[in-house]
Amino acid sequence: MHRTAITALTLACALIAAPALAATPAAAAAKPNLRACYDGKCTFTFTKSVKFLVAKKYGLSGWVHVAKEWNDLVGADVIAVWSGGSSAFMGEGTSGGIGKLDFRALAITGKGATVRFTG
């Protein structure tokens, strides 16, 4: 009887966790909400290059572009951020800025990268 209770409890836990596990890949593949970056403060993960507009107070004209690129000089992937004639390249854990806009490379993986814009 004790074994039956443990089996039932294990099955119940699996049924509760299954929807959460199934939802995780879909959420991870979701496109980042870049409209939230207009104020210069956001964090997002991307798998393809992205672009968004920021407020004029950051001194940038046009779109801010963010991409993961291979850098031959350092022999690794870096996060590239550019707008107009300004650009910055960051390895994982490093910070940079263009105009008055600051950001930090939080993670770089084989599939994508995570970046935090701090304004």
Topology readout:
Layout: H1 2-28, E1 41-46, E2 50-52, E3 64-71, E4 76-83, E5 86-90, E6 95-98, E7 101-108, E8 113-118
Antiparallel strand pairs: 1-8, 2-3, 3-4, 4-5, 6-7, 7-8
Task: Name a few traits of the molecule.
119 residues, globular, disordered N terminus
- Spans of at least 5 consecutive residues whose pLDDT stays below 50 are 1-28
Proportion of strand residues? 35-45%
Order of helices and strands: HEEEEEEEE
**Main sheet record:** 4 strands, antiparallel
C-alpha Rg (nearest Å): 20 Å
Structural class: alpha+beta
Lateral strand order in the biggest sheet: 1-8-7-6
Signal peptide: 1-22
Protein name: Peptidase inhibitor family I36
Keywords: Signal
Characterise the protein shown here:
Keywords: Signal. This is Peptidase inhibitor family I36. Residues 1-22 form the signal peptide. With 119 residues, the protein is of the alpha+beta class. Helix content is 23%, strand content 40%. It is built from one helix and eight strands. The protein has one helix at residues 2-28, and strands at residues 41-46, 50-52, 64-71, 76-83, 86-90, 95-98, 101-108, 113-118. A four-stranded antiparallel beta sheet has the order 1-8-7-6, with no helix packed on it. A hairpin with a 2-residue loop joins β4 and β5 (86-90). The longest helix is centred in the first third of the chain and has 27 residues, at 2-28. 16% of the residues are buried. Mean pLDDT is 81; it is low at 1-28.
